[in-house]
Amino acid sequence: MTVEKLIAHYSLLPHPEGGWYKETYRSTINIIQNALPSNFTEGRVFSTAIYFLLEQGNFSAFHKIKSDECWHFYWGQTLLVYVINQQGNLDIIKLGSDIENGEVFQYVVPANCWFASIPADHAEYCFVGCTVSPGFDFNDFELAKAEDLINEFPNLSEEIKKLCRQ
């Protein structure tokens, strides 16, 4: 399997944070706004899902959303998911199939945490999925500015510079 075959077969599109994606599911059931936390300005669907592909030399820039996001490993090699947790510490999750070396098939990034991802040094590409609940909406998406994130987390400046596009 190659990156080009995956992009063609699944009709993947460029993602604003980096990499390639295709929405595969959007619930037809809605959650009304007043049933959601106050930081949601309008209703959302119950859940959404995408395919997401990152090739070596590319990365998904630091961003955050208002919902939990469950990552699922499908194919390829190790994806490193960088998460700045609510305490301001950096967690690096190895998403992949090598469970004997600490890799996991699934990981949930909590809502409102800054996160980014990049293929491990040995990885040609990583083909994963992301399920978001309440469902993903680009109105809930915030792409980090390196300067702002470094001001908030100066101890993580090296990682932030590496994984920001602006």
Provide a descriptive summary of the structure in words.
With 166 residues, this protein is mainly beta. It has a single domain, classed as Jelly Rolls (Sandwich). Helices cover 12% and strands 41% of the residues. The chain is built from three helices and 13 strands. It has helices at residues 3-9, 146-152, 157-162, and strands at 13-14, 20-26, 30-31, 44-45, 48-55, 60-64, 68-76, 79-84, 90-95, 106-109, 114-119, 125-133, 142-143. Strands 1-2-5-12-7-10 form a six-stranded antiparallel sheet. Strands 9-8-11-6-13 form a five-stranded antiparallel sheet, with no helix packed on it. Strands 3-4 form a two-stranded antiparallel ribbon. Strand 1 (13-14) and strand 2 form a beta hairpin. The protein is globular and about 45 Å long.
Order of helices and strands: HEEEEEEEEEEEEEHH
Q: Tell me the structural class.
A: mainly beta
Principal-axis shape: globular
Rg computed from alpha carbons, rounded to a whole number of angstroms: 16 Å
- Individual helix count: 3
Helix content: 10-25%
Give the biggest sheet: 6 strands, antiparallel
**CATH-derived topology:** Jelly Rolls
pLDDT < 50 runs, ≥5 residues: none
Count of individual domains: 1
Task: Tell me the strand percentage band.
Answer: 35-45%
Strand order of the largest sheet: 1-2-5-12-7-10
Question: How many strand segments?
Answer: 13
Question: Which whole number gives the mean pLDDT?
Answer: 96
CATH architecture heading: Sandwich
Q: Quick one: CATH class?
A: Mainly Beta
